[in-house]
Write a structure and sequence with these properties.
Blueprint (H helix, E strand, L loop, with lengths): L2 H24 L8 H15 L14 E4 L26 H15 L23 H4 L14 H18 L3 E2 L14 E2 L19 E4 L1 H4 L2 H4 L2 H16 L1 H6 L6 H8 L3 H4 L2 H6 L3 E3 L15 H6 L8 E3 L8 H10 L3 H9 L15
Antiparallel strand pairs: 1-4, 2-3, 5-6
Helix pairs in contact: 1-14, 3-5
Length: 359
Amino acid sequence: MTAAGDVGFAQRQLAARLARVRALREARDGGGEPLSAGVHSRLSELWEFGGHRDRDEPGRRPEFIVVRGEFIGTRPDHPYGPALPRLIKSRGLQLRLLLLLLFDAQCRAEPGERVRNVRTIVGPAGENYRTWRELVLSETSPTRGTGRTAQDLRVRQITEALRALEGQHLVSIPRHPGGRRDYDAFELLSEASTADEHPPYLVPEAGIRIPRQFFTELWVFALTDTELATYLLLSFLRWRFPSRHLEQGVFVTAETREKVFRIARATWRATDLLHRYRLIDRMPDPRRQYRTGKVGDPAKRWANREVAPARFKINNDALSRPALDVIDQVLGAPTAQDVFRRETGMDMPGLTFDSTLPG
């Protein structure tokens, strides 16, 4: 592909990325408020009260949702590898739904406890807990003449995602007589499950900590699968190397990325957009060109030990901003600060994240 072709391809990808986030912002359930506003309110309610409609007692209100490390990375010779890379798809809710299941479980159950599914997919009105359909944000564009509503399509997306998770031994779905799946009775299994071992899910005592705003501010739905996977990989590295992350940032070599995390280079490129959203910072390296990543003569620099992989730090504070608004601004109407960060990798001195100067 020519240089002009590369630029055109990148522009088309960004246009598609912007179109997706705007579709999420505009999604509605047949009128009324945007679906994103309703899901935001219901996930905040879930965190605050454990999801129960009574609201008489506060919920657990965990500040962090804990994920087992084996979901993200395993030893290089592991026969199956982690489940995360197998959930990365261009379409489908499987990865987002699994993360939502972990959020729901830990808002209701204490560490070490087994978690029972208390929600139906659709369910009759007046149930004690919100349905899964009410907690999921997705793009739903009904086709005219089919008679299917946006709600119907989201239910289908959820059941398709549950089947995908069942195929990876991350949920168990019982069957009705005759073999039809009973989706309302599914059981969450450990996120470290494999084809050989798939124990029931117990809330972990320790592991990778994801701030609860990742869910309540809708980042779990706004990010693509590749962005989610890259964010989780960097979260794994922060968990394993906390001092290094704090002092100089963490990195991963191509060999480790491929053998331990089984993440492709194309997925890892999502670090660029995560940096632009300010979810991560790329540490400056005077030996490397920021925009291209080039390091001059690679062989010569490796021989002189002058080249190191790019290092990153995670910004927990950035998760407190509404995900859909942030991505729409950064990609569709960037401020001067956004443009400066995109071009230099740094923030412009004297301007804040909320700057409204034209881009």
